[in-house]
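User: Sequence in, structure out. Go.
Assistant: Echoing your sequence, followed by the C-alpha coordinates.
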Amino acid sequence: MTAYDDLMAYQRETEALSQVAGRLGWDQETMMPRGAAPQRAEEMAAMESVLHARRVDPRLGDWLAEIEDNALDDVGRANLRHIRRSFERASKVPAQLAARIARVTSEAQGIWAEARAADDFAAFAPTLTEVIALKREEGQALALGGDVYDAMLQDYEPGTTGAEIAGMFGALRPELSELRAAVRAAKAPPKLTGTFDEAAQMKLTRHLAKTFGYDMSMGRVDKAVHPFSSGSGLDVRITTRTNETDPFNCFYSTIHEVGHAAYEQGIDRAYLLTPLGRGVSMGVHESQSRIYENQIGRSRAFTAWLFGEMKEAFGDFGIPDSETFYRVVNRVSDGFIRTEADELQYNLHVLMRFDLERALVAHDLQVQDLEAAWNDRFEADFGFPVDKPSNGVLQDVHWSVGLLGYFPTYSLGNVYAGCLNEAMRAAVPGLDDQLAQGDTSTATAWLRDNVQSHGGLLEPRDVIARATGKPPSESPLLGYLRTKFTEIYEL
Protein backbone atom coordinates (compact mmCIF):
# COMPACT_ATOMS: atom_id res chain seq x y z
CA MET A 1 0.00 0.00 0.00
CA THR A 2 1.10 3.57 -0.63
CA ALA A 3 1.34 6.19 2.11
CA TYR A 4 -1.89 7.71 0.77
CA ASP A 5 -3.70 4.34 1.02
CA ASP A 6 -2.44 3.86 4.59
CA LEU A 7 -3.52 7.39 5.50
CA MET A 8 -7.03 6.96 4.09
CA ALA A 9 -7.54 3.55 5.76
CA TYR A 10 -6.61 5.13 9.07
CA GLN A 11 -8.84 8.13 8.39
CA ARG A 12 -11.87 5.94 7.65
CA GLU A 13 -11.62 4.50 11.15
CA THR A 14 -11.34 7.98 12.64
CA GLU A 15 -14.37 9.14 10.67
CA ALA A 16 -16.35 6.07 11.82
CA LEU A 17 -15.48 6.70 15.47
CA SER A 18 -16.47 10.35 15.05
CA GLN A 19 -19.88 9.20 13.83
CA VAL A 20 -20.23 7.04 16.95
CA ALA A 21 -19.44 10.06 19.12
CA GLY A 22 -22.06 12.03 17.24
CA ARG A 23 -24.63 9.31 17.89
CA LEU A 24 -23.94 9.64 21.62
CA GLY A 25 -24.81 13.32 21.30
CA TRP A 26 -28.00 12.55 19.38
CA ASP A 27 -29.06 10.06 22.03
CA GLN A 28 -28.35 12.58 24.78
CA GLU A 29 -30.79 15.00 23.19
CA THR A 30 -33.55 12.54 22.34
CA MET A 31 -33.59 9.23 24.23
CA MET A 32 -31.12 9.31 27.12
CA PRO A 33 -32.65 9.20 30.62
CA ARG A 34 -31.89 12.40 32.53
CA GLY A 35 -30.11 10.55 35.31
CA ALA A 36 -27.51 9.24 32.88
CA ALA A 37 -25.96 12.67 32.31
CA PRO A 38 -22.89 12.27 34.59
CA GLN A 39 -21.99 8.93 33.01
CA ARG A 40 -22.58 10.27 29.50
CA ALA A 41 -20.15 13.11 30.22
CA GLU A 42 -17.48 10.52 31.02
CA GLU A 43 -18.33 8.56 27.89
CA MET A 44 -18.09 11.66 25.72
CA ALA A 45 -14.77 12.61 27.31
CA ALA A 46 -13.42 9.10 26.70
CA MET A 47 -14.48 9.21 23.05
CA GLU A 48 -12.90 12.63 22.61
CA SER A 49 -9.65 11.34 24.14
CA VAL A 50 -9.57 8.48 21.64
CA LEU A 51 -10.39 10.77 18.71
CA HIS A 52 -7.88 13.41 19.77
CA ALA A 53 -5.16 10.76 20.05
CA ARG A 54 -5.95 9.57 16.54
CA ARG A 55 -5.98 13.12 15.16
CA VAL A 56 -2.47 13.82 16.51
CA ASP A 57 -0.96 10.38 15.90
CA PRO A 58 2.64 10.92 14.66
CA ARG A 59 1.99 8.52 11.78
CA LEU A 60 -0.28 11.17 10.27
CA GLY A 61 2.64 13.56 10.07
CA ASP A 62 4.85 10.87 8.51
CA TRP A 63 2.25 9.96 5.90
CA LEU A 64 1.55 13.61 5.07
CA ALA A 65 5.26 14.28 4.64
CA GLU A 66 5.70 11.26 2.37
CA ILE A 67 2.78 11.94 0.03
CA GLU A 68 3.37 14.15 -3.00
CA ASP A 69 0.28 16.29 -3.49
CA ASN A 70 0.87 16.77 -7.22
CA ALA A 71 0.72 12.98 -7.72
CA LEU A 72 -2.92 12.93 -6.56
CA ASP A 73 -6.15 13.85 -8.31
CA ASP A 74 -8.50 16.60 -7.08
CA VAL A 75 -10.21 14.24 -4.62
CA GLY A 76 -6.91 13.09 -3.17
CA ARG A 77 -5.62 16.62 -2.78
CA ALA A 78 -8.86 17.70 -1.11
CA ASN A 79 -8.64 14.79 1.34
CA LEU A 80 -5.08 15.80 2.16
CA ARG A 81 -6.11 19.41 2.67
CA HIS A 82 -8.71 18.42 5.28
CA ILE A 83 -6.50 15.87 7.04
CA ARG A 84 -3.53 18.24 7.17
CA ARG A 85 -5.71 21.04 8.53
CA SER A 86 -7.17 18.75 11.20
CA PHE A 87 -3.76 17.33 12.14
CA GLU A 88 -2.16 20.74 12.47
CA ARG A 89 -5.06 22.11 14.55
CA ALA A 90 -5.40 19.06 16.80
CA SER A 91 -1.65 18.97 17.40
CA LYS A 92 -1.83 22.43 18.94
CA VAL A 93 -4.42 21.40 21.57
CA PRO A 94 -3.23 19.36 24.56
CA ALA A 95 -5.05 16.03 24.91
CA GLN A 96 -6.05 16.77 28.51
CA LEU A 97 -7.62 20.06 27.44
CA ALA A 98 -9.59 18.40 24.62
CA ALA A 99 -10.95 15.75 27.01
CA ARG A 100 -11.78 18.33 29.66
CA ILE A 101 -13.70 20.44 27.17
CA ALA A 102 -15.68 17.38 26.07
CA ARG A 103 -16.51 16.47 29.68
CA VAL A 104 -17.41 19.99 30.84
CA THR A 105 -19.55 20.81 27.79
CA SER A 106 -21.45 17.53 28.11
CA GLU A 107 -22.22 18.35 31.74
CA ALA A 108 -22.95 21.99 30.87
CA GLN A 109 -25.67 21.00 28.44
CA GLY A 110 -27.75 19.50 31.25
CA ILE A 111 -27.04 22.41 33.59
CA TRP A 112 -28.11 24.85 30.86
CA ALA A 113 -31.34 22.90 30.26
CA GLU A 114 -32.22 23.01 33.97
CA ALA A 115 -31.35 26.72 34.27
CA ARG A 116 -33.42 27.45 31.17
CA ALA A 117 -36.41 25.58 32.59
CA ALA A 118 -36.04 27.52 35.86
CA ASP A 119 -35.35 30.87 34.15
CA ASP A 120 -32.25 31.22 36.30
CA PHE A 121 -29.18 32.53 34.47
CA ALA A 122 -27.24 32.79 37.74
CA ALA A 123 -27.47 29.01 38.10
CA PHE A 124 -25.77 28.57 34.73
CA ALA A 125 -23.28 31.44 34.86
CA PRO A 126 -20.48 29.60 36.76
CA THR A 127 -20.60 26.71 34.29
CA LEU A 128 -20.65 29.06 31.32
CA THR A 129 -17.67 30.91 32.79
CA GLU A 130 -15.76 27.61 32.86
CA VAL A 131 -16.78 26.75 29.30
CA ILE A 132 -15.69 30.17 28.00
CA ALA A 133 -12.37 29.92 29.84
CA LEU A 134 -11.66 26.47 28.40
CA LYS A 135 -12.60 27.53 24.88
CA ARG A 136 -10.42 30.64 25.20
CA GLU A 137 -7.54 28.39 26.25
CA GLU A 138 -8.15 26.19 23.23
CA GLY A 139 -8.44 29.25 20.96
CA GLN A 140 -5.18 30.67 22.24
CA ALA A 141 -3.44 27.35 21.53
CA LEU A 142 -4.85 27.36 18.00
CA ALA A 143 -4.16 31.03 17.29
CA LEU A 144 -0.46 30.92 18.21
CA GLY A 145 -0.51 34.60 19.07
CA GLY A 146 -3.06 35.56 16.42
CA ASP A 147 -6.71 36.48 16.81
CA VAL A 148 -8.39 33.94 19.10
CA TYR A 149 -11.89 34.39 17.66
CA ASP A 150 -10.55 33.94 14.12
CA ALA A 151 -8.99 30.67 15.26
CA MET A 152 -12.36 29.53 16.64
CA LEU A 153 -14.13 30.39 13.39
CA GLN A 154 -11.99 27.93 11.44
CA ASP A 155 -13.83 25.00 13.03
CA TYR A 156 -17.06 26.14 11.39
CA GLU A 157 -16.18 28.33 8.39
CA PRO A 158 -12.59 27.69 7.25
CA GLY A 159 -10.92 30.60 5.52
CA THR A 160 -12.99 33.41 7.01
CA THR A 161 -12.20 35.97 9.69
CA GLY A 162 -14.16 37.92 12.26
CA ALA A 163 -13.33 41.15 10.46
CA GLU A 164 -14.70 39.84 7.14
CA ILE A 165 -17.90 38.71 8.82
CA ALA A 166 -18.23 42.01 10.68
CA GLY A 167 -17.95 43.83 7.35
CA MET A 168 -20.67 41.75 5.74
CA PHE A 169 -22.91 42.01 8.80
CA GLY A 170 -22.28 45.76 8.89
CA ALA A 171 -23.79 45.96 5.40
CA LEU A 172 -26.77 43.81 6.40
CA ARG A 173 -27.80 45.46 9.63
CA PRO A 174 -28.85 48.98 8.52
CA GLU A 175 -30.92 47.73 5.56
CA LEU A 176 -32.59 45.03 7.65
CA SER A 177 -33.36 47.51 10.42
CA GLU A 178 -34.79 50.03 7.95
CA LEU A 179 -36.99 47.42 6.24
CA ARG A 180 -38.10 46.06 9.60
CA ALA A 181 -39.14 49.54 10.75
CA ALA A 182 -41.18 50.07 7.57
CA VAL A 183 -42.89 46.70 7.94
CA ARG A 184 -43.76 47.29 11.59
CA ALA A 185 -45.41 50.58 10.65
CA ALA A 186 -47.56 48.91 7.97
CA LYS A 187 -50.74 46.85 8.33
CA ALA A 188 -49.88 43.27 9.21
CA PRO A 189 -51.45 40.09 7.82
CA PRO A 190 -53.66 38.11 10.21
CA LYS A 191 -52.22 35.69 12.74
CA LEU A 192 -52.76 31.97 12.81
CA THR A 193 -55.05 31.09 15.74
CA GLY A 194 -56.51 27.93 17.23
CA THR A 195 -55.07 24.63 18.40
CA PHE A 196 -53.54 21.95 16.21
CA ASP A 197 -53.30 18.34 17.33
CA GLU A 198 -49.66 17.47 17.97
CA ALA A 199 -49.94 13.92 16.63
CA ALA A 200 -51.37 15.37 13.40
CA GLN A 201 -48.49 17.85 13.30
CA MET A 202 -45.96 15.02 13.52
CA LYS A 203 -47.74 13.07 10.78
CA LEU A 204 -47.71 16.07 8.44
CA THR A 205 -44.15 17.01 9.37
CA ARG A 206 -42.91 13.54 8.35
CA HIS A 207 -44.76 13.97 5.07
CA LEU A 208 -43.01 17.33 4.60
CA ALA A 209 -39.64 15.71 5.27
CA LYS A 210 -40.27 13.20 2.49
CA THR A 211 -41.62 15.94 0.21
CA PHE A 212 -38.24 17.67 0.45
CA GLY A 213 -36.39 14.46 -0.42
CA TYR A 214 -35.37 13.22 3.04
CA ASP A 215 -34.65 9.49 2.75
CA MET A 216 -36.33 7.96 5.80
CA SER A 217 -34.68 4.58 5.15
CA MET A 218 -31.45 6.24 6.29
CA GLY A 219 -32.94 8.72 8.74
CA ARG A 220 -35.60 9.34 11.35
CA VAL A 221 -37.57 12.24 12.85
CA ASP A 222 -37.69 12.59 16.63
CA LYS A 223 -38.61 15.36 19.05
CA ALA A 224 -36.13 17.47 21.02
CA VAL A 225 -36.09 20.77 22.92
CA HIS A 226 -33.83 22.30 20.28
CA PRO A 227 -34.26 20.93 16.70
CA PHE A 228 -31.07 19.65 15.10
CA SER A 229 -29.63 17.33 12.46
CA SER A 230 -27.04 14.69 13.27
CA GLY A 231 -24.87 12.30 11.28
CA SER A 232 -23.77 11.93 7.69
CA GLY A 233 -23.73 9.39 4.88
CA LEU A 234 -26.08 6.48 5.50
CA ASP A 235 -27.33 7.55 8.94
CA VAL A 236 -28.62 11.13 9.12
CA ARG A 237 -31.19 11.90 11.81
CA ILE A 238 -33.24 15.01 12.49
CA THR A 239 -35.37 16.31 15.35
CA THR A 240 -38.22 18.80 15.53
CA ARG A 241 -40.60 20.11 18.19
CA THR A 242 -44.33 20.72 18.48
CA ASN A 243 -46.49 23.49 19.87
CA GLU A 244 -50.24 22.96 19.76
CA THR A 245 -50.89 26.64 19.01
CA ASP A 246 -48.05 27.09 16.49
CA PRO A 247 -47.77 24.27 13.91
CA PHE A 248 -45.43 26.40 11.78
CA ASN A 249 -42.79 25.93 14.47
CA CYS A 250 -42.91 22.20 13.86
CA PHE A 251 -43.21 22.31 10.06
CA TYR A 252 -40.52 24.86 9.35
CA SER A 253 -38.13 23.44 11.95
CA THR A 254 -38.50 20.14 10.13
CA ILE A 255 -37.96 21.64 6.68
CA HIS A 256 -34.92 23.50 8.02
CA GLU A 257 -33.36 20.36 9.48
CA VAL A 258 -34.20 18.39 6.33
CA GLY A 259 -32.09 20.94 4.44
CA HIS A 260 -29.14 19.99 6.66
CA ALA A 261 -29.91 16.28 6.37
CA ALA A 262 -30.40 16.40 2.59
CA TYR A 263 -26.95 17.96 2.28
CA GLU A 264 -25.40 15.03 4.15
CA GLN A 265 -27.49 12.45 2.30
CA GLY A 266 -26.72 14.09 -1.05
CA ILE A 267 -22.93 13.91 -0.82
CA ASP A 268 -21.27 11.65 -3.40
CA ARG A 269 -21.24 8.15 -1.86
CA ALA A 270 -17.65 7.70 -3.02
CA TYR A 271 -16.72 10.12 -0.21
CA LEU A 272 -18.38 8.06 2.55
CA LEU A 273 -16.30 7.99 5.77
CA THR A 274 -13.65 10.28 4.32
CA PRO A 275 -13.03 13.97 5.11
CA LEU A 276 -15.04 14.84 1.98
CA GLY A 277 -18.07 12.87 3.19
CA ARG A 278 -19.62 15.68 5.22
CA GLY A 279 -20.68 19.27 4.65
CA VAL A 280 -17.72 21.55 3.97
CA SER A 281 -18.69 24.27 6.47
CA MET A 282 -21.53 25.37 8.68
CA GLY A 283 -22.17 28.39 6.47
CA VAL A 284 -22.70 26.20 3.40
CA HIS A 285 -24.70 23.78 5.56
CA GLU A 286 -26.92 26.61 6.71
CA SER A 287 -27.41 27.75 3.12
CA GLN A 288 -29.16 24.46 2.46
CA SER A 289 -31.38 24.55 5.54
CA ARG A 290 -32.36 28.18 4.93
CA ILE A 291 -33.09 27.86 1.21
CA TYR A 292 -35.22 24.78 1.92
CA GLU A 293 -37.04 26.55 4.74
CA ASN A 294 -37.43 30.02 3.27
CA GLN A 295 -36.89 30.58 -0.45
CA ILE A 296 -38.61 27.26 -1.23
CA GLY A 297 -40.71 26.46 1.84
CA ARG A 298 -42.11 29.96 2.42
CA SER A 299 -42.57 30.81 -1.25
CA ARG A 300 -46.00 31.75 -2.54
CA ALA A 301 -46.05 28.65 -4.74
CA PHE A 302 -45.13 26.11 -2.07
CA THR A 303 -47.36 27.61 0.61
CA ALA A 304 -50.30 27.26 -1.79
CA TRP A 305 -49.72 23.50 -1.71
CA LEU A 306 -49.07 23.48 2.05
CA PHE A 307 -52.36 25.29 2.61
CA GLY A 308 -54.19 22.33 1.09
CA GLU A 309 -52.20 19.85 3.16
CA MET A 310 -53.04 21.71 6.36
CA LYS A 311 -56.75 21.78 5.50
CA GLU A 312 -56.64 18.04 4.95
CA ALA A 313 -54.82 17.49 8.26
CA PHE A 314 -56.73 19.96 10.46
CA GLY A 315 -59.92 20.86 8.62
CA ASP A 316 -60.98 24.51 8.45
CA PHE A 317 -58.40 26.41 10.51
CA GLY A 318 -59.63 29.94 9.87
CA ILE A 319 -57.56 31.00 6.85
CA PRO A 320 -59.80 31.58 3.83
CA ASP A 321 -57.42 31.03 0.90
CA SER A 322 -53.86 30.25 -0.16
CA GLU A 323 -52.88 33.88 -0.76
CA THR A 324 -53.89 34.85 2.77
CA PHE A 325 -52.08 31.77 4.02
CA TYR A 326 -48.88 32.86 2.23
CA ARG A 327 -49.05 36.20 4.00
CA VAL A 328 -49.78 34.53 7.36
CA VAL A 329 -46.78 32.21 6.95
CA ASN A 330 -44.54 35.21 6.21
CA ARG A 331 -45.99 37.53 8.84
CA VAL A 332 -43.37 39.63 10.61
CA SER A 333 -44.04 39.31 14.33
CA ASP A 334 -42.36 40.51 17.48
CA GLY A 335 -40.69 37.60 19.22
CA PHE A 336 -37.78 36.66 21.42
CA ILE A 337 -36.71 33.34 19.92
CA ARG A 338 -34.14 33.17 17.11
CA THR A 339 -35.29 29.81 15.77
CA GLU A 340 -38.86 31.06 15.50
CA ALA A 341 -37.99 34.41 13.92
CA ASP A 342 -39.28 35.39 10.50
CA GLU A 343 -36.89 35.82 7.58
CA LEU A 344 -36.69 39.57 7.96
CA GLN A 345 -35.69 39.63 11.62
CA TYR A 346 -33.73 36.38 11.90
CA ASN A 347 -30.37 37.84 10.98
CA LEU A 348 -30.71 40.62 13.56
CA HIS A 349 -30.81 37.87 16.20
CA VAL A 350 -27.62 36.35 14.81
CA LEU A 351 -25.78 39.64 14.48
CA MET A 352 -26.43 40.33 18.16
CA ARG A 353 -25.01 36.95 19.21
CA PHE A 354 -21.96 37.43 17.00
CA ASP A 355 -21.12 40.72 18.67
CA LEU A 356 -21.69 39.36 22.18
CA GLU A 357 -19.63 36.21 21.79
CA ARG A 358 -16.82 38.09 20.11
CA ALA A 359 -16.75 40.40 23.12
CA LEU A 360 -16.75 37.42 25.51
CA VAL A 361 -13.78 35.83 23.76
CA ALA A 362 -11.88 39.15 23.73
CA HIS A 363 -12.46 39.68 27.49
CA ASP A 364 -14.44 42.83 26.64
CA LEU A 365 -17.53 41.27 28.24
CA GLN A 366 -17.65 39.08 31.35
CA VAL A 367 -20.14 36.26 31.83
CA GLN A 368 -21.65 37.91 34.93
CA ASP A 369 -22.54 40.91 32.73
CA LEU A 370 -23.80 38.87 29.78
CA GLU A 371 -27.50 38.80 30.71
CA ALA A 372 -27.65 42.59 31.08
CA ALA A 373 -25.69 43.09 27.85
CA TRP A 374 -28.03 40.73 26.02
CA ASN A 375 -31.14 42.48 27.34
CA ASP A 376 -29.82 45.95 26.48
CA ARG A 377 -28.85 44.97 22.95
CA PHE A 378 -32.11 43.10 22.35
CA GLU A 379 -34.24 46.08 23.35
CA ALA A 380 -32.13 48.39 21.19
CA ASP A 381 -32.47 46.12 18.13
CA PHE A 382 -36.06 44.92 18.55
CA GLY A 383 -37.77 47.70 20.47
CA PHE A 384 -39.14 45.78 23.44
CA PRO A 385 -37.60 44.26 26.60
CA VAL A 386 -36.73 40.63 27.28
CA ASP A 387 -39.24 39.22 29.75
CA LYS A 388 -37.32 36.20 31.09
CA PRO A 389 -33.96 34.44 30.59
CA SER A 390 -35.43 31.50 28.65
CA ASN A 391 -36.55 34.05 26.06
CA GLY A 392 -33.18 35.77 26.23
CA VAL A 393 -29.69 34.71 27.13
CA LEU A 394 -30.67 31.12 27.96
CA GLN A 395 -32.63 30.34 24.81
CA ASP A 396 -29.80 28.80 22.74
CA VAL A 397 -27.79 25.69 23.57
CA HIS A 398 -24.68 26.73 21.61
CA TRP A 399 -22.55 28.44 24.25
CA SER A 400 -23.21 25.68 26.78
CA VAL A 401 -21.61 23.14 24.45
CA GLY A 402 -18.71 25.41 23.54
CA LEU A 403 -19.78 26.39 20.03
CA LEU A 404 -18.09 29.79 19.99
CA GLY A 405 -17.73 31.00 16.42
CA TYR A 406 -20.77 29.02 15.28
CA PHE A 407 -23.47 31.70 15.42
CA PRO A 408 -22.23 33.87 12.52
CA THR A 409 -22.48 30.89 10.16
CA TYR A 410 -26.27 31.16 10.42
CA SER A 411 -26.24 34.53 8.72
CA LEU A 412 -23.48 33.48 6.34
CA GLY A 413 -25.81 30.65 5.38
CA ASN A 414 -28.61 33.13 4.70
CA VAL A 415 -26.27 35.17 2.50
CA TYR A 416 -25.20 32.04 0.62
CA ALA A 417 -28.85 30.96 0.29
CA GLY A 418 -29.70 34.32 -1.28
CA CYS A 419 -26.96 33.79 -3.86
CA LEU A 420 -28.05 30.22 -4.59
CA ASN A 421 -31.73 31.16 -4.89
CA GLU A 422 -30.90 33.83 -7.46
CA ALA A 423 -28.89 31.32 -9.52
CA MET A 424 -31.45 28.51 -9.13
CA ARG A 425 -34.32 30.73 -10.25
CA ALA A 426 -32.36 31.74 -13.33
CA ALA A 427 -31.58 28.10 -14.13
CA VAL A 428 -35.12 26.79 -13.50
CA PRO A 429 -37.58 29.47 -14.73
CA GLY A 430 -40.69 27.26 -14.31
CA LEU A 431 -39.88 26.27 -10.76
CA ASP A 432 -42.96 27.83 -9.13
CA ASP A 433 -45.33 25.71 -11.21
CA GLN A 434 -43.75 22.59 -9.71
CA LEU A 435 -43.64 23.95 -6.16
CA ALA A 436 -47.34 24.77 -6.34
CA GLN A 437 -47.94 21.02 -6.80
CA GLY A 438 -45.77 20.17 -3.80
CA ASP A 439 -43.01 18.96 -6.13
CA THR A 440 -39.62 20.12 -4.84
CA SER A 441 -37.63 17.55 -6.84
CA THR A 442 -36.21 19.97 -9.44
CA ALA A 443 -35.16 22.50 -6.81
CA THR A 444 -33.60 19.90 -4.54
CA ALA A 445 -31.89 18.18 -7.49
CA TRP A 446 -30.34 21.53 -8.55
CA LEU A 447 -29.03 22.02 -5.02
CA ARG A 448 -27.79 18.45 -4.81
CA ASP A 449 -25.93 18.72 -8.12
CA ASN A 450 -24.49 22.18 -7.55
CA VAL A 451 -23.79 22.12 -3.80
CA GLN A 452 -24.51 18.97 -1.86
CA SER A 453 -22.81 16.29 -3.96
CA HIS A 454 -19.41 17.99 -3.64
CA GLY A 455 -19.23 17.46 0.13
CA GLY A 456 -15.86 18.75 1.26
CA LEU A 457 -14.24 18.73 -2.18
CA LEU A 458 -14.11 22.53 -2.51
CA GLU A 459 -13.49 25.36 -0.05
CA PRO A 460 -16.71 26.93 1.33
CA ARG A 461 -16.80 30.12 -0.71
CA ASP A 462 -15.69 28.23 -3.81
CA VAL A 463 -18.78 26.01 -3.50
CA ILE A 464 -21.04 29.06 -3.71
CA ALA A 465 -19.00 30.78 -6.41
CA ARG A 466 -18.99 27.66 -8.58
CA ALA A 467 -22.75 27.16 -8.17
CA THR A 468 -23.65 30.79 -8.88
CA GLY A 469 -20.88 32.00 -11.17
CA LYS A 470 -19.79 34.82 -8.85
CA PRO A 471 -18.37 35.40 -5.36
CA PRO A 472 -20.77 35.42 -2.39
CA SER A 473 -22.40 38.75 -1.62
CA GLU A 474 -25.13 39.98 0.70
CA SER A 475 -26.84 41.82 -2.19
CA PRO A 476 -29.06 38.94 -3.47
CA LEU A 477 -30.37 38.25 0.02
CA LEU A 478 -31.18 41.92 0.66
CA GLY A 479 -32.85 42.22 -2.74
CA TYR A 480 -34.93 39.10 -2.16
CA LEU A 481 -36.09 40.28 1.27
CA ARG A 482 -36.81 43.81 0.06
CA THR A 483 -38.93 42.57 -2.87
CA LYS A 484 -40.80 39.96 -0.85
CA PHE A 485 -41.75 42.07 2.15
CA THR A 486 -42.42 45.23 0.17
CA GLU A 487 -45.05 43.26 -1.73
CA ILE A 488 -46.55 41.46 1.28
CA TYR A 489 -46.80 44.67 3.32
CA GLU A 490 -47.62 46.94 0.37
CA LEU A 491 -44.82 49.35 1.24
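User: And one key feature?
Assistant: Residues 3-146 form one domain.
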